[in-house]
Design brief:
Layout: E1 3-4, E2 8-12, E3 16-23, E4 26-32, E5 36-41, E6 46-49, E7 60-62, E8 68-71, E9 74-82, E10 86-91, E11 94-98, E12 102-110, E13 115-122, E14 136-140, E15 145-150, E16 158-163, E17 170-173, E18 180-183, E19 186-191, E20 201-206, E21 212-216, H1 220-223, E22 235-241, E23 244-249, E24 252-256, E25 267-270, E26 287-289, E27 292-297, E28 302-303, H2 312-319, E29 326-332, E30 335-342, E31 345-352, E32 355-361, E33 365-366, E34 371-374, E35 379-385, H3 386-391, E36 397-402, H4 403-406, E37 411-415, E38 423-428, E39 432-439, E40 447-455, E41 458-463, E42 470-475, E43 483-488
Parallel strand pairs: 28-33
Antiparallel strand pairs: 1-35, 2-34, 3-4, 4-5, 5-6, 7-9, 8-9, 9-12, 10-11, 12-13, 14-15, 15-16, 16-17, 18-19, 19-20, 20-21, 22-23, 23-24, 24-25, 26-27, 27-29, 29-30, 31-32, 32-35, 36-43, 37-42, 38-41, 38-43, 39-40, 39-42
Protein name: DUF2139 domain-containing protein
Organism: Desulfurococcus mucosus (strain ATCC 35584 / DSM 2162 / JCM 9187 / O7/1)
Pfam families: DUF2139
C-alpha cells in the first residue's frame, strides 16, 4: 500500500500509521506527524482531512496512540494536533516546539455522508505545556457515549465522557489513564498517575451504575508468574478475551479480573522485558484474531539524542540500544508464539477480510530536545494474509541484551513455542549463576519449572530445547560487561 517518506510535520522524531480501522467498506488511518486522516472507500472514493476544523494549518500530529472506535456507520477518531504548527528552531543542534496551538480533539467521520465533523477540542495555549491528549476512545453502548482516556499532558488528565453526538465533556476519574478496552459490562483503563513509573493498576467504569472500581497492584513480584518485579511500566494497550482483561505494557502483560480480583486475581506475565530498554508494546494496538490475541511488541518505541541535563546520556544509552526486531505474538492460552518478525515499529493493525494490515514507522518517537520540522521516519502499511499468519512457523529471531541493561533483575519472557533449536549464549568475564523461569500463557498463567545452572568465565551456551513455554532469566550477580544473545531458530 502507500508509503509515506519524511514530510513536513514539526514534532519529536516520527509518528506512524495510527488508528488503522476497516469499517463498512472504509479504511481509515491517520498519518502522523503529518496530521493527515485518510478515508479510503471500497468503491474508489478517497478523502484526506488535514484537521482544518482546528486551525488554518499547516498542521502536525494527529494521533500517536490509536484513539479510534466505530458505531453504526460512524468512525470516531481522536488524538492531538498542532494547528498551525510552531517550530521554534534549533539551538546547539537541538530543536524545540511551541505548544500554544496544540489541541486535544475528537472527530467523527460519517461513512454514508462522506463527511468529517469536529465533536470536541481543547487547548490551554501554553508555550511549554498541553492539555491531556486523547489516547483512548471506548464506546459505551449502554449510555451511548464515548469514554476517553487521557494521561499524556500536563492538565485535564483522567477518564472523561462525551455524548456521542457531541457536547460537554465530564470527568469520570481523576486518575490518568492512557489505554483501555471494554471488559464484560465495564470499560477499563490503566492507572498511570506517574508516566515515568507507568501502570500502577486498572480502573474500570461500571456502564450500568456508573461506579468507578479500582484495582491497585501493591506488589508486582507477588503477582508475578516468575516471582520478579517490573519497572518502567509504560502503558501499551488493553484488550478483553476469555472473560479476562489483559493490559500490555513495557515488561509484559497484566491479565485477570480487576473488577472482582477474588474471583481471578490479575497476574503479571513477563514478556520481552529487557530492563530499561524501550522494547515494548507501546503506541500500537492488539487484535482479536481467530479467537486469540495478536499482540505487537516494538523494538524502538522511544528514544532521544539531545537531553536536557548531564545524566541524560545514561538514559539515552538504554533507550537507543536496539535489542532485536519487532515481533507479532499470537496468544491462544496456554500458548503464546511468535508469528512474525519486523524490522520496524508496528504502530497499528486492522483486519480487512482475510488480510491483516500492519502500519509501521522506521523511527521512534523522540524526546528531549530532538524536535525537528519534519517527521523523520518512513511510514507505511504492510498487508499480511490472515491464513498465512495463523499457520506460519515462527520466524528466526535474535535478541542481544547487555548486562548493564538488565543488571541483577529478571529479564526476558521469550515465547519458545515452535522453535527447534533455541539457545542462550552469554559472553562474560567472570563466572555467574543463571536461573531460568519456565511458565505458560494459561488463564491464569502458571509457572512450569525453575532451574539454575553455573556459568563459567568466557562464553557459555545454554540449550533451551527442553522448554516449550515462555522463559525468563536472572543472573545471580549483576555483570555490566556481560553480552547475552537469545537465539531462536
Amino acid at each position: 500500500m502507500h508509503l509515506y517518506p519524511p514530510r513536513y510535520g514539526p514534532e519529536w522524531g516520527s509518528g506512524g500509521i495510527f488508528g488503522l480501522t476497516y469499517h463498512r467498506g472504509v479504511l481509515y488511518y491517520t498519518v502522523a506527524m503529518e496530521a493527515e486522516a485518510h478515508f479510503i472507500h471500497d468503491d474508489g472514493f478517497t478523502e484526506t482531512y488535514r484537521f482544518q476544523g482546528l486551525g488554518p494549518g499547516p498542521a502536525s500530529g494527529g494521533d500517536t496512540y490509536n484513539a479510534v472506535d466505530v458505531v453504526d456507520d460512524e468512525i470516531f477518531f481522536g488524538g492531538w494536533v498542532h494547528n498551525p504548527a510552531l517550530y521554534k528552531g534549533k539551538t546547539g543542534g537541538s530543536g524545540e516546539i511551541d505548544f500554544r496551538n496544540k489541541y486535544s480533539h475528537i472527530h467523527v467521520y460519517s461513512v454514508a455522508e462522506h463527511s468529517v465533523k469536529l465533536l470536541w477540542s481543547e487547548s490551554i495555549h501554553d508555550e511549554y505545556k498541553w492539555a491531556g491528549e486523547v489516547s483512548q476512545i471506548t464506546y459505551d453502548p449502554v449510555n451511548d457515549r464515548l469514554l476517553i482516556g487521557r494521561a499524556d499532558g500536563h492538565v485535564n488528565l483522567g477518564i472523561y465522557s462525551l455524548p456521542r453526538r457531541g457536547g460537554r465533556v465530564e470527568k469520570v476519574s481523576e486518575t490518568p489513564g492512557l489505554k483501555g478496552a471494554l471488559f464484560l459490562d465495564y470499560a477499563c483503563f490503566d492507572m498511570q498517575p506517574n508516566w515515568l513509573r507507568g501502570v500502577d493498576g486498572i480502573q474500570c467504569v461500571d456502564l450500568v451504575s456508573g461506579q468507578l472500581v479500582k484495582y491497585s497492584v501493591e506488589s508486582w513480584s507477588r503477582i508475578s508468574v516468575d516471582g520478579g518485579g517490573v519497572e518502567m511500566r509504560g502503558s501499551g494497550y488493553g484488550i478483553s478475551a476469555y472473560t479476562r482483561y489483559l493490559h500490555f505494557f513495557r515488561g509484559g502483560v497484566l491479565v485477570g479480573n480487576p473488577v472482582e480480583p477474588w474471583i481471578d486475581e490479575p497476574r503479571f506475565m513477563r514478556l520481552f522485558d529487557f530492563g530499561r530498554n524501550p522494547y515494548a508494546p507501546q503506541r500500537s494496538n492488539a487484535l482479536v484474531l481467530g479467537g486469540g490475541i495478536l499482540a505487537p511488541f516494538n523494538a524502538y518505541t522511544h528514544g532521544f539524542l539531545h537531553g536536557y541535563k548531564e545524566g541524560d546520556n545514561v538514559l539515552a544509552k538504554h533507550l537507543n540500544t536496539v535489542v532485536g526486531p519487532s515481533v507479532l505474538v499470537y496468544i491462544t492460552p496456554p500458548q503464546a508464539r511468535i508469528v512474525m518478525a519486523l524490522g520496524a515499529r508496528v504502530t497499528s493493525m486492522a483486519k480487512r477480510g482475510g488480510e491483516i494490515l500492519v502500519g509501521y514507522s522506521t523511527t521512534p518517537n523522540l524526546g528531549g530536545r530532538d524536535a525537528s520540522p519534519l517527521d523523520a521516519g518512513v511510514k507505511g502499511i504492510t498487508i499480511v494474509s490472515e491464513e498465512s499468519l495463523l499457520s506460519a512457523s515462527p520466524p528466526p529471531v535474535v535478541f542481544r541484551v547487555y548486562g548493564w541493561m538488565v543488571e541483577g533483575n529478571y529479564f526476558g519472557g521469550i515465547p519458545l513455542s515452535g522453535y527447534r533449536e533455541p539457545r542462550l549464549v552469554i559472553d562474560s568475564k567472570r563466572g555467574n549463576r543463571l536461573t531460568i523461569y519456565h511458565y505458560d500463557a494459561g488463564l491464569p498463567p502458571d509457572i512450569i519449572e525453575e532451574s539454575s545452572l553455573s556459568l563459567g568465565e568466557g562464553r557459555s551456551t545454554v540449550d533451551l530445547k527442553g522448554y516449550w513455554g515462555i522463559v525468563s532469566f536472572r543472573l545471580e550477580e549483576a555483570d555490566p560487561s556481560a553480552k547475552i544473545y537469545i537465539i531462536l531458530n
